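Q: My labmate handed me this sequence with no annotations at all. I'd like to see what the chain might look like in three dimensions before we decide whether it's worth expressing. Could you predict it?
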Amino acid sequence: MDDDNRNSTYALAAERVWDGVSDEPRSGVAVVVKDRLIDAVLPVAEVPAGLASVPLPDCTLLPGLMDAHVHYSSVMGPAFLAAGVTTVRDVGNDLAWILGERERHANDFAAGPAILCCGHLLDGPRVYWPKLGRAHGSPGEIVESVRRHVEAGVDQIKLYAGVDPPLLKAAVDAAHESGKFVVAHLQATTAEDAARLGLDEFEHLAGCGVAWRAASEVEDDLMIDQLLERDVIIDPTLVVWDRLGRILDRPFHHDARRAWVHPRHLDIWQRYLSRFGPAEHRWRYQGAMVHLKRFLRRAHQRGVTVALGTDTPFPHLVPGMSVHDELAMYTDAGLPAVDALRSATSINARVLGIDDRAGSIRPGLRADFVAVRGNPLERIEDIENVSCTVREGRRFDQTGLMRDFRATFDREPDGAVTRDLMDYVDGKHVNRPVS
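A: Here is what I predict for the chain of 435 residues:
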């Protein structure tokens, strides 16, 4: 099913409807879609006679999922939709290319999810990812890059590992003057300093030393106090650290979801350099996982805003499906399933600045949904059982999406991330990338 019903009105009648915010799903209600928007949420008995209805027995209807940390490639779109992901935030790509992809996806819902983008990674004096990033040796240089990105029309600004405190402050101040939110992968700047200097969000828990080691609740709280005081958001991306630590684990090679990964990306995964490095490099990530989960749980308990992203397409991160894996990791860390799902829907929408358009099920918002068999609020793994995805009123099922995906096999993936990763596994990078 790939119904080109963008200008039609119909009702979705699922056994349960979860609006992205409430503690529990509702039963006995239908969601009416008109053109690209949600028109009404009403009791099934009140659905107008004669209105086309799509029955979804034994399914839960949720807002479309969002992945807040992606490096997009041209071959990923069908997989994201197949997983129920209707919006992604690209946090590092060639500026002109990703703006073009954002426009293409805005006009062609079948191309893949809606895209928000940051443009290039704005890095320090040395650029780690030459095609994804841009180097900056002074505050003036990075301010100029921020200005160019804002003028080009990016949604947010992304800073990378080599940005030290003076560069970060200059970039954050310039972005905020233009009304732009700033997200960063930290390394040369600590999380404590970044929070003090006004950063809005940091990724991977990178730069947050206490999250990576055994620490007491008191130590956690000292860091969390700073995050709360300055409203700093975290996007842990636990799944990328888990996969890098377990890159040699054989079960990943038998994951049927690899059918949704382009052969070029599978080749990159097979040749990723950490597969061949010292075992201690992989053990670092394996050993850190319990600490990262501990810190995530404590941060959530204390009220830190927790977004949800994945870092697709790094090794063993299947586009879209890795959102399901990250949700499972959140619940393994001790978050209630409903809170994990909020991170992937209504909270992500707020972090991305689109909660007035998407992220929950209420009249006036985009008709973006995923219907899954079962109830993921009770069993988070049910989120994997996608029955259909709706993007702005247009319905998709996995059969049609797989057909579209396989049509990409005869061409190379487009996008800077693929080219940078290819150069990396071919040993062409002068500077070894930061994981």
